[in-house]
Amino acid sequence: MSQLHPWSRYVAIGDSFTEGIGDPEPESPGGHRGWADRVAEQLAERTDDFAYANLAVRGRLLQQIADEQIDPALALRPDLISISAGGNDILRPGTDPDEVAQRFDDAIARLRSDGATVVIFTGPDIGMTPVLRRVRGKVAIYNENLRYVAAKRDAIVIDMWALRELQDSRMWHPDRLHFSSLGHHTIARATLGALGIEHDLQPMRPEPLPGRTWRQARTEDLGWAREHLVPWVVRRIRHQSSGDLITAKRPEAGSPRR
């Protein structure tokens, strides 16, 4: 096989987004696939001896990712690193997106120290969600900071805010906090495109959603709040994380093929 791109070792770090939550796959390590696994699979098809590790753990805050994942990631000697971090911080009341972005900049400086290509992600536009829209302004401010960091550190940006396909509710898991399999597939396509990689991931275009009455929408919102929102709020109050006792699903660099 000829070398069709410049990377041979890819390490993904971050939180639930990069771990692949919302895209269940029993045969994948950790029981979830996600956009990063999909990207790694495509990269592996285009070069010999490709290695991939995924150190992301759900629920992690930016400082936890910096403290727990950056050094192990660099120890794997990657030439390609992706990081999505800070989203869980931004969702918390009272956080300052400028301060979070400064710590993100520090993290990117460390990741770029050995010359690896670094990929970062802006937050998606969450204006269509019933609860998260309250922090839409914070997400927008954080995104502008991330674009500045990317320009400063020469990182590649996957602009999920501009990825209008993510406005479709079918791109989201029923918990409305994570992406569905369709969402992860769409983000993998966007990532490969930003890396300049030709790939065979085809757009997935589901049928239009049937119309809903106001009463049906209200019932769905109440069911979602009971099943997903309330447990999430309770964990925040108790200072618990969905990632407690969870470890990285791919801690060692190896073949991404299942």
UniProtKB/TrEMBL annotation:
Boundaries of every SGNH hydrolase-type esterase domain copy: 12-184
Organism field: Microcella alkalica
Protein name: Lysophospholipase L1-like esterase
Any Pfam family the entry gives: Lipase_GDSL_2
Gene3D superfamilies per the UniProt record, alphabetical: SGNH hydrolase (3.40.50.1110)
InterPro entries: GDSL_Rv0518-like, SGNH_hydro, SGNH_hydro_sf
